[in-house]
Amino acid sequence: MLKKTSTFIIKFLQIPIMSKLPNVTTSIFTVMSKMAAEYNAINLSQGFPNFPVDEKLTDIVARLAKENVHQYTPVTGYPPLMNQITKLLFNSYKRSVNPDIELLVTAGATQGIFTSILALIKENDEVIMLDPSFDSYESPILLCKAKPIRIALNDDYTPNWEIIEKACSIKTRMIIINNPHNPTGKILSDSDFIQLEKLLSKYPDLLVLSDEVYEYITYEEKHISAHTKSFLLDRCIMVSSFGKSFHITGWKIGYTVAPEHLMIEIKKVHQFLVFSVNSISQIALSEYLNIVDTNLLGKFYQEKRDYFQKLLQNSRFELKPCEGTYFQVASYANISNEDDVTFCKNLIINHGVAAIPISTFYSDHKDQKLIRFCFAKDDSTLESAAKKLCEI
């Protein structure tokens, strides 16, 4: 007797998913870095250094790799590192911090920002962002079902406090400041902090998230840290980055400082997001902070800024002031009428240099014919890039 066989084709239906971030696409940094690789262009777009890390630090890591340092550290951070951070904060800003209740080691500054917003912002809250703003701010706000209120800085990249105040209401829970500022390299002034203090006096429930990842990369003048302002200490979350300071961006390690009543909530989210941060990097940095002088970082990068500016002085680009960070904003208005995204793509394809269009940092994609170069590169890279840029 023949067996009758039947073929069944099972078709799986795609289950529709409502995206929580429907407007988020591939970041401009990824787009430009990918294009730079495809066209073998010099990558001055993404903000990562291409020169060697301090040998003192890599020697520490090499030694530690063979030691018993590969298991979980405490959730809040490796205690000797946390003690070193408290010393760093006191030496830098004369601020005394209790590491047990006010400090958290994070998997990079981005995680510190994300965790803080997720912990402290609730549905229907409003959060003020100052454009041009870094792209990691908005997404956690949206994931909280809160509302980002994006306010453009003035054309000289100073905050317009009159407009900021008008945007505030009883729904406003947080304002994010970035100082020194990415992408513009601007630092806040004393008058800015006076205006911020007035704003906080008017809105007693308003918190401040101060992104200070470039705090040690400043030039003619040091930035004014939120750590130095007594009126902020009970209402501010400060975010810092070892990755930026010591050009170890791939380590993804930073730290967050906040008053105890806020840090309690931040730690709750942190323990379920990452639990604890990479052990060997924490232990290595706890040793390295004993021997490194953060005061020399500004001088190191200022030499690079000045050299890059000198290399471009005969170009058709107009270089804007750079007070901090390792980014140089430049106008190409004398070169092309193209929008900045198109200009940056053509810059890669036709001239072999990658940059970032500034319009992508604005909610309305405000286009002022400005682009951002990263000068955290070795001299030969800067020279090669400048040669191409001066030929345009």
From TrEMBL:
Needed co-factor(s): pyridoxal 5'-phosphate
The molecular function GO annotations come to:
kynurenine-oxoglutarate transaminase activity; pyridoxal phosphate binding
TM segment ranges? none
One cellular component term from this protein's GO annotations in UniProt: cytoplasm
Q: Which UniProt keywords apply?
A: Aminotransferase, Pyridoxal phosphate, Transferase
- Keyword Transferase carried by entry: yes
Gene3D superfamilies per the record?
Aspartate Aminotransferase, domain 1, Type I PLP-dependent aspartate aminotransferase-like (Major domain)
Any one Pfam family match given in the protein's UniProt record, by short name? Aminotran_1_2
Cross-referenced NCBIfam families, in alphabetical order?
Answer: PRK09082.1
Q: From the Swiss-Prot or TrEMBL record, give the protein name.
A: Methionine aminotransferase
Q: Which organism is it from?
A: Flavobacterium nitrogenifigens
